[in-house]
TrEMBL record:
The keyword rRNA-binding does not apply. This is Aminotransferase. It holds the Pfam family Aminotran_1_2. It is an enzyme of class 2 (transferase). Its EC number is 2.6.1.-. GO terms for biological process: amino acid metabolic process.
Length: 390
């Protein structure tokens, strides 16, 4: 194996050196080596991709749909996304200039943040939240400003946002929202979204809204920030969660044409275009798969209710999730807030893998995340082990 030349050892990105690997993935890799462990760690649906969606991908391959696609995405797919957003978010995005098909929501997050940030900028991020936002902001040369929402029912309040903006000054350029939330499953009510939109409008902020779990809600209506403030919102979503298409890597961005033109340039430099058969599958999902997430949500809600009841019996306090497929549980008082120690003990002694809440930012300390995107058999056995451990 080649060894890097000593003269090159210090030639690398200093920004990259500032960020560590994903705490979620690192913990999952560590506990995956434990024999007999049941993992409730990764947010990946155990359901299969709907059959009609798979067949669309197969047909695309058989018909030799294997050439460079348009860089912003196939016109029919962008049209389908535009129609979906008009129906569900009441925002009329021009498919030709205001929608970009990306390599999963991960690329969409990178494109959105790298496309608007400059050296020295700041980005407000309510925590706990999806941990990818922190390193992406750092790699863009900006500073993530974490807001701990744990004392406000894991929701960012307008008052808290105003206070932070007053402290941080005019270098704050954006606010990131993720809801239904990973890791808590909480949903932002319409009135709160509208109040936050007014604060963002007053302070001239971009809002990056990641709503990838919005098709998986339980007993509540999803209200989008794009609906409340379309002129300042960059909307992110995809099909990984709603249609169990994590491996297809299909996401998208939507926003005002002026900023989307710039983001489209960055997207084209990063990936050229998205795989043809994946786009064919996505077209089918958007045009004929509206009921797929409805059926998936019924399955997830049954699992959610079972876990909530079991954890209540075990004496653990939980956040009540209204969407996504996670439960955020407070660890026993005996651990004095050390969620990593609790997750380690649960993994090595009870053989159940959960994710330490501190992996999701300051607001997650003292909690663990359990994913119920796992089979009911695994969930039942995991709950039995947790109850015995406690």
């Amino acid at each position: 194996m080649p060894k890097l030349a000593a003269e090159l050892a210090d030639i690398n990105s200093q920004r990259l050196a500032q960020v560590g690997p994903s705490g979620i993935r690192a913990f999952d890799v560590k506990v995956s080596a434990i024999p007999g462990i049941i993992k409730l760690t990764i947010g990946e649906p155990d359901l299969n991709v709907p059959e009609h969606v798979k067949q669309a991908a197969i047909k695309s391959i058989e018909e030799n749909d294997s050439h460079y696609a348009p860089q912003m995405g196939k016109p029919r797919l962008r049209q389908a996304i535009s129609q979906y957003l008009k129906r569900t978010r009441q925002v009329d995005y021009d498919p030709a200039t205001e929608v970009i098909v990306t390599c999963g929501a991960t690329e969409a997050i990178n494109v959105a943040l790298r496309g608007i940030l400059n050296e020295g900028d700041k980005v407000v991020i309510p925590t706990p939240t999806f941990a990818l936002y922190f390193p992406v902001v750092t790699l863009a040369g900006a500073t993530p400003i974490q807001i701990d929402t744990s004392k406000d029912n894991f929701l960012l309040t307008p008052e808290h946002l105003e206070k932070v903006l007053a402290q941080e000054g005019d270098r704050v350029k954006a606010l990131i929202l993720n809801y239904p939330s990973n890791p808590t499953g909480v949903q932002y009510p319409k009135e709160l979204v509208q109040e936050l939109a007014q604060v963002a409008k007053k302070h001239h902020l971009y809002i990056i809204t990641d709503e990838i779990y919005s098709d998986l809600c339980y007993g509540v209506e999803h209200y989008s920030m794009a609906t409340a403030l379309p002129e300042q919102t960059i909307f992110i979503s995809g099909l990984s969660k709603s249609h169990a298409m994590t491996g297809y890597r299909l996401g998208y961005l939507a926003g005002p044409a002026a900023i989307m033109k710039k983001l489209g340039k960055l997207h084209a430099l990063m990936v050229t275009s998205i795989t043809d058969n994946v786009q064919a599958a996505a077209i089918e999902a958007f045009e004929h798969g509206q009921n797929d997430p409805v059926e998936a949500a019924k399955i997830y809600q049954t699992r959610r209710d079972y876990i909530l009841a079991q954890l209540k019996e075990a004496g653990l306090k939980t956040v009540y999730p209204q969407g996504a497929f996670y439960i955020f549980a407070q660890i026993p008082a005996s651990y004095q807030g050390d969620d990593v120690a609790f997750a380690n003990d649960l993994a090595y002694q009870a053989k159940v893998g959960v994710t330490p809440g501190s992996a999701f930012g300051k607001g997650g300390e003292g909690y663990v995340r359990l994913s119920y995107a796992a089979s009911m058999d695994d969930i039942k056995e995991a709950m039995a082990r947790i109850k015995q451990f406690l």
